[in-house]
């Protein structure tokens, strides 16, 4: 019975969502919307028809896991939206990779590439949201791989997915904060056109940012939710401020035709179609890292519902924020020669401010607004990486796991202290590669996107291979379009890996300037293989599914719900009747014949107590669904 529940069977179970209202067969988020002749044309009704389960008798059946609740469960949908938004960080993310889209096509690549990347990223997020609504676990994608793959390959697929996620989370910290350090220092280029980057100074600023973001995560965890919410307001406000000031101060603007159709591929060396595809890397760098959000599940209220709502909403906000950032930039875009040829050491966004506004004070103000968004991203990157580290160590994925599971109480909050320190330590070592070879360091940053994308793709592929059976009963459902969305997601994973393996420019390409991201990724996989041989096959356990959960809940079926107490996990009710009669002033007892009824044979364990239910047992064992194991 438990195995059937775990793999998405159709066992009738009571409501496990935490809602005081009972679950109705086939119920969905929008099942109570009016559905009349004209109502079917409403967008909400169309969405309802799309996401309703194919089987109208399908009952919501959420998996539970045997993990002790250590971290505080207090995050809401708004918190998830804010954290996701800070991880993707549209204003700075697009600013730091602007040169890629400018080199590989310019306007067309920047605008239409953003739309394409957003669409495929939405497919990936929808696929993962459906899975997390069935399996709300902080292991995220590496738990999904274990639960959705064939049992024979469950542990090994979870191991590799976990290492891809973990390495991606650590390199994501480096990617965000190192680019942030470069951006902060490029502010000197607003005054001095001959500015040259000093790698040692970049490292100094980088370590300052790393210490700042780690300190906030360790010592001020109670403010993280407010920080995440503030990130949404600040990022949107920054985008609107940039739009207004650029258009207001601009000395020249482009026509609509120029904005929508200009394609300049004169600097990349790629054929035009390939240049456009390679230019997608600019947007892919920005819309990345959302798979890390699922590592926060332990701290989210009602994660089976709030996680899908949060990550999907954050992508829509990210998409529109990106559009309103791109269009004004394209309206006032200076000549490519000024942005890419004359001052290559300065980030293009700084030069756009400088040449378009022609005011040092206003340009400096806009750069400062973007620097604050970098700090939001830096804090969010450490938050998600530390939770990923904590979850993977808890399952035995890291050596000396007990050391990394140490938590610290800060006022009323609990934080994974050592997981934060480990994430910071790894992130402190990697940038040293930039001193030796800039090309090698850039390859590490490219592999960040590849590892995170692959970690998202593995569970989606496993889901398709088992014909989507194991997500039945989730709180969020893709219905008939599930196969299409999952297929598009897998296609996108492959395409991103190819794009990230290509150098943006092949004109004058040398071995020292080659893109080695794919080589670095293979090296990471080789390290994961070595780790599995050394300690993983002995200590790694994978997700701990509570296989008894539904077995216990199924006992509370219709006709067996007369619970005595809402505070007891188990209630034993004796069907006592007054089996006596009086005769000659005396009370005489008798034993009535036992009625013939269906019997249940089995055992239920909870801690050290064991309750047996047999064929000749007159005692009824009930489970109180109001309490969660």
Provide an overview of this structure.
The structure is a single chain. The chain is mainly alpha-helical and 629 residues long. The protein folds into 2 domains: 463 residues, Up-down Bundle (Amino acid/polyamine transporter I), CATH 1.20.1740.10; 62 residues, no CATH class. The chain has 23 helices and 8 strands. The strands form 4 sheets. The protein has a two-stranded antiparallel ribbon with strand order 1-2. A hairpin with a 2-residue loop joins β6 and β7. The radius of gyration is 28 Å and the shape is globular. One of its GO terms (cellular component) is membrane. InterPro entries: AA/rel_permease1 (IPR002293). GO terms for molecular function: transmembrane transporter activity.
Overall 3D shape: globular
CATH superfamily of the largest domain: Amino acid/polyamine transporter I
> In the CATH scheme, what's the topology name of the largest domain?
Amino acid/polyamine transporter I
Supply the CATH architecture of the largest domain. Answer: Up-down Bundle
Number of E-state strands: 8
* Domains, number: 2
Count of DSSP-assigned helices: 23
Question: Strand sequence of the main sheet, in spatial order?
Answer: 1-2
Helix content: 55-70%
What structural class do the secondary elements suggest? mainly alpha
Any low-confidence stretches, pLDDT <50, length ≥5?
1-43, 53-57, 548-578, 593-629
Radius of gyration: 28 Å
Return the CATH class of the largest domain.
Mainly Alpha
Distance between the termini: 18 Å
Strand content: 5-15%
* Biggest sheet descriptor: 2 strands, antiparallel
Mean pLDDT: 77
